[in-house]
Structures are given as structure tokens and as C-alpha cells.
């Protein structure tokens, strides 16, 4: 009887251990995905009115957050003058990135941004050879936050060229990220090693 109870106990322990081990697999899979994060000031090419700034930029929250890395990129306020901004605009200027992507797939593009107001809260994003996409137009002002393109980017393994283009002035760009994960980035994110090609 004792031997039978011992075998049952051993079997129960083995099943429990297996359950714990197998139970970790879906959790790991749920958080899996390819993610590449980089600093905006690492642009391969910058055309005016985009300007690279050095140092930290604090937002206007009660407990201010700062930009990450060594700087950020902005289109200074009133840089577009009287030129038409918004939906039909074809304004000059871009910040170009050559991004190393580990695997082909459909990626969500996120950007950590700082908007001054509703007249300065968006960029265009354009992967090489594709149509431009809207990034922004949300109502969070004077605070660093992440916004995403609603349309996913079809990226190839290796180097992909992504242009961030002028749509409105007064806008500031700190970091960018492409990911196949469904997770929303929070705060400054550590850049991915080797994210940008020379």
C-alpha cells in the first residue's frame, strides 16, 4: 500500500512538473516577436527642415520624462511658414533610416514623439518604394508618448529604408521601433544593437 501511494505521489509530482514546464511555453510564445528599436538622431540622411538636436529634452508632465539617447530630431515650430500642411501636403524634408530587420514580416512601426498641439502632431512615414503612411494625429500634447502607424509595414530580412517625412512643423521625434509583437512600448526603450546600417 505504501509503495502504491509512493508511486502515485511520484506520478503526481511528475505531472505537476510537466504542467509547469509546458505552462511556460505559451507565455513565452505570447511575448515572442521580432523587435528593432533605434534612436531618431541616428538618421542616415537628414534634409531640412528636419534638424538634429543634442542633449535631453524634457516634456511638461508633473513628473517630467526626458528624451533618450544623445539627442532627438525635430521640425522646428513655424519651419514650414505659410506652406500647406496636412493631408495633401508635399512638403520638403525627411529623416531617413536604414534599418536592419532580422526576419521578413508584417511589422508595426512605433515612434516616441512630443507634440506641441493639434497643429503639430504628425509625420508621414514612407518605406522605400511604397506609399506614405500617417503617423500621429492623436491628442496627447506636451508629453513624450508612443504612437503607431495603423498600417503594418511589409519589411524584408536585412536592410530596409524607412523615411520619416515632413507633414507639420513643431514636431519632435525621439525613438522609432518596428515590431511583430502586439506589445505597446512604454517610456524610453533600449536601442537594439546593430539596428541601423551605415
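Sequence proposed for the structure above (198 residues):
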Amino acid at each position: 500500500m505504501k509503495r502504491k501511494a509512493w508511486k502515485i505521489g511520484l506520478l503526481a509530482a511528475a505531472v505537476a512538473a510537466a504542467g509547469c514546464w509546458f505552462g511556460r511555453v505559451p507565455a513565452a510564445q505570447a511575448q515572442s516577436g521580432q523587435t528593432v528599436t533605434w534612436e531618431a538622431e541616428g538618421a542616415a540622411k537628414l534634409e531640412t527642415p528636419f534638424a538634429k538636436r543634442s542633449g535631453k529634452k524634457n516634456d511638461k508632465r508633473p513628473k517630467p520624462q526626458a528624451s533618450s539617447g544623445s539627442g532627438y530630431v525635430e521640425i522646428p515650430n513655424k519651419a514650414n511658414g505659410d506652406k500647406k500642411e496636412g493631408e495633401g501636403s508635399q512638403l520638403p524634408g525627411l529623416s531617413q533610416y536604414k534599418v536592419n530587420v532580422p526576419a521578413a514580416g508584417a511589422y508595426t512601426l512605433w515612434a516616441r514623439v512630443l507634440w506641441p498641439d493639434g497643429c503639430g502632431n504628425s509625420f508621414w512615414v514612407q518605406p522605400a518604394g511604397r506609399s506614405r503612411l500617417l503617423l500621429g494625429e492623436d491628442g496627447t500634447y506636451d508629453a513624450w508618448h508612443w504612437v503607431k502607424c495603423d498600417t503594418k509595414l511589409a519589411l524584408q530580412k536585412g536592410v530596409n529604408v524607412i523615411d520619416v517625412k515632413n507633414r507639420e512643423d513643431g514636431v519632435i521625434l525621439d525613438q522609432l521601433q518596428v515590431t511583430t509583437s502586439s506589445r505597446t512600448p512604454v517610456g524610453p526603450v533600449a536601442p537594439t544593437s546593430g539596428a541601423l546600417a551605415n
